[in-house]
């Protein structure tokens, strides 16, 4: 068959450990035989990041802004043990965090639903897309270990010398204190990313904070979302037949457990961190979770929601067989190819992405899957495949659809 021709390259960000191995298999067996793949390649493996003093990460983010669509392999965020293992110059920051900040983006995570892997919550019929505002709050906090009696105050000093002062607490003895911040500009970007992605994917948006308790901090999130929705998106949502809904975070959790799914759940940073793990686990597996970073400017970066599968990589290095789930990484590629096809008006490229996803799910539904899924499936008499065998099985299924 004639390969599908691309017009504009994808930004390709290679990664680390077992996912790097799967990355090459996916390209070799599932994409390059059918697509004349054009990418602008950046090696975000930890060794190369260290060699370039992490400049390659910034370069890849700039390329994503320029080309509009990227696909990223899982990467290592080093801790002290990794610094020693890889003999690093320093403890480099998370590539995801660097790229997210550079693109001013919001991360949307959604489970891949497949027959035979049923959610723990019986009434969840459709994916729940978790949108996390990945800036500020406790992740950018400042903390004090209060040594003894005294007071802690929150103080703002304006450039003109204006001062606002609030008492946090009068301490009678030792304790702790914490300060957090956020920015109107970041909240605005978060809101626009959520509303744009809702229009893109034709889904309702739920947003939740605790504004009844946090009457200034959380309430600001609520106000910004409502103001932007009313001014810029209300008519477009009505035309698309979708809705925006605000409630308190505890009410949202209760509602989510009784809902059928099929909506975007927008959360502040900490809520999104926690709830994304809850949603992914309840749907079956983090290895079956897609992730896409969307900027308000309409830039997209697709990746799997999981890490580099370190344990399997060490087994791979010993020559031992692994059964590593590659589904989310396959879907990172299909998401990027589909979006590239949409932006470049190449329906055949988008259709190929659809067929690759269908082939991947059909392979699992036929009873051929990796070990992690075999342990939780409701299908009987399944065949456990190793890492390469699963990708080869998907390739065979794909050929029947093209």
Explain this structure to me?
By secondary structure, this protein is of the alpha/beta class. Helix content is 44%, strand content 21%. It contains 14 helices and 18 strands. α13 links the parallel β17 and β18. α3 packs across α5 (95-103) and α11 packs antiparallel against α12. The longest helix has 24 residues, at 217-240. The model has no long low-confidence stretch (mean pLDDT 95).
Describe this structure in a few short sentences.
The chain is built from 14 helices and 18 strands.
Cα-to-Cα separation, first versus last residue: 9 Å
Strand content: 15-25%
Number of helices: 14
Structural class by helix and strand composition: alpha/beta
User: Number of DSSP strands?
Assistant: 18
Shape, per Cα inertia axes: globular
What strand order characterises the main sheet?
4-2-5-16-15-6-7-14-12-13
Q: Write down the Rg.
A: 23 Å
Helix content: 40-55%
Largest sheet: 10 strands, mixed
Overall pLDDT score: 95
Low-confidence stretches: none
List the topology elements.
Elements: E1 4-5, E2 10-14, H1 17-31, E3 35-36, E4 39-43, H2 46-51, H3 55-67, E5 69-72, H4 80-85, H5 95-103, E6 106-111, E7 129-132, E8 142-146, E9 150-157, E10 163-171, E11 175-179, H6 184-201, E12 204-209, H7 217-240, E13 244-248, H8 249-258, E14 263-267, H9 269-283, E15 289-294, E16 300-304, H10 310-317, H11 327-343, H12 347-365, E17 368-369, H13 371-374, E18 383-384, H14 387-399
Parallel strand pairs: 1-3, 2-4, 2-5, 5-16, 7-14, 12-13, 12-14, 17-18
Antiparallel strand pairs: 6-7, 6-15, 8-11, 9-10, 15-16
Helix pairs in contact: 1-10, 1-14, 3-5, 6-7, 11-12, 12-14
């Amino acid at each position: 068959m004639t390969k599908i021709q691309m017009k504009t390259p994808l930004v390709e960000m290679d990664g680390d450990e077992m996912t790097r191995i799967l990355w090459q298999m996916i390209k070799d067996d599932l994409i390059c035989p059918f697509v004349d793949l054009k990418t602008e390649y950046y090696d975000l493996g930890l060794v190369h990041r260290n060699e370039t003093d992490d400049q390659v990460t910034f370069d890849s983010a700039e390329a994503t802004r320029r080309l509009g669509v990227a696909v990223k392999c899982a990467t290592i965020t080093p801790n002290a043990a990794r610094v020693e293992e890889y003999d690093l110059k320093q403890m480099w920051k998370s590539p995801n965090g660097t790229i997210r900040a550079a693109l001013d983006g919001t991360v949307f995570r959604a489970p891949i639903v497949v027959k035979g892997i049923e959610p723990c919550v019986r009434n969840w019929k459709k994916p729940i897309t978790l949108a996390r505002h990945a800036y500020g709050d406790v992740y950018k906090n400042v903390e004090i270990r209060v040594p003894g009696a005294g007071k802690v105050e929150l103080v703002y000093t304006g450039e003109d010398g204006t001062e606002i002062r609030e008492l946090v607490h009068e301490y009678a003895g030792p304790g702790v204190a914490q300060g957090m911040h956020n920015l109107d500009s970041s909240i605005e970007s978060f809101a626009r990313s959520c509303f744009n992605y809702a229009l893109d994917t034709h889904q309702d948006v739920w947003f939740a904070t605790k504004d009844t308790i946090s009457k200034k901090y959380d309430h600001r999130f609520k106000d910004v979302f409502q103001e932007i929705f009313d001014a810029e998106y209300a008519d477009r949502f009505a035309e698309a037949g979708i809705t925006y809904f605000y409630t308190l975070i505890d009410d949202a959790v209760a509602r989510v457990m009784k809902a059928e799914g099929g909506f975007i759940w927008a959360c502040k940073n900490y809520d999104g961190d926690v709830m994304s793990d809850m949603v992914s686990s309840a749907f079956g597996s983090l290895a079956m979770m897609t992730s896409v970073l969307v900027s308000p400017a309409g830039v997209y970066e697709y990746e799997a929601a999981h890490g580099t599968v370190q344990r399997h990589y060490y087994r791979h290095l010993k020559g031992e067989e692994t059964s590593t789930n590659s589904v989310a990484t396959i879907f990172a590629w299909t998401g990027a190819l589909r979006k590239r096809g949409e932006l470049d008006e190449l329906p055949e490229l988008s259709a190929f992405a659809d067929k690759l996803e269908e082939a991947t799910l059909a392979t699992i539904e036929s009873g051929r899957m990796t070990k992690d899924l075999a342990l939780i499936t409701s299908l009987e008499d399944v065949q456990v495949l190793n890492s390469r065998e699963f990708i080869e099985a998907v390739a065979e299924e794909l050929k029947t659809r093209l």
